[in-house]
Amino acid sequence: MKRIDGLYLLGVVSVFVTIGCAGTGGGGGLTTPTPAGTAVSMATIKGLMYGTAPTGSQVSFNLNGSDSQGYSWTGSYAVMSDGPTTFESQNVTLSRTLLTLKKGSGTPITLITSRYYLISNSTLYKIVSSNGGTSVPTTQTVIPDIIRVGDFHNFLNTNNSDGTTTTATWAMKPDYNDSTKFILSAVIKSGATITATEEDTYTLDSSGNPYQIRISVTGNGVTTSMFGIINR
In total, how many domains does the chain have? Predict the structure, then answer.
């Protein structure tokens, strides 16, 4: 199997390809849709993603799902802030994701992805994955402190060490009862050919804290969907 390096979001595609493939509502029942224009604090998400939350802060989810070939998938996902450090002579903050996935009764595979952000301006410096892959940004924007329901934006473009490129966007969509859905989407290309896509949806409570995650990945003609509720 060809290794796919450097997807920004969770590194999910890399694990799915290595293994061999490549619905939820808001709290309190589905009653009142969250209105367009509702302001959502990104403090919790940004603190974890950018490594600026207190060192050791994290959220984790147990994952369950299936793919379009009928196989079951299980696993876990965690994102944590490791705070300020020095990397390649740069003053950075470090955020890590730890992803473990198992297809059916197969052997679990774990991928650790480290993301380094420049302290000076909160921009991504480099992504380094435990499978040997690296990604370097070519263009990017910093996620705002406040996002309103209905907002969407280009997020990140990277050149990856396997010769592919990644283009990522974000969007904030309504859920119910003041909950919202923060969606990170990515497309990986080899030249002009799309080799994989990923969409990760965090369901946020009214304070902007994530409590559910849904992951959808398509690679090698197979779509895999997984869902998890935050571990308390």
Answer: 1
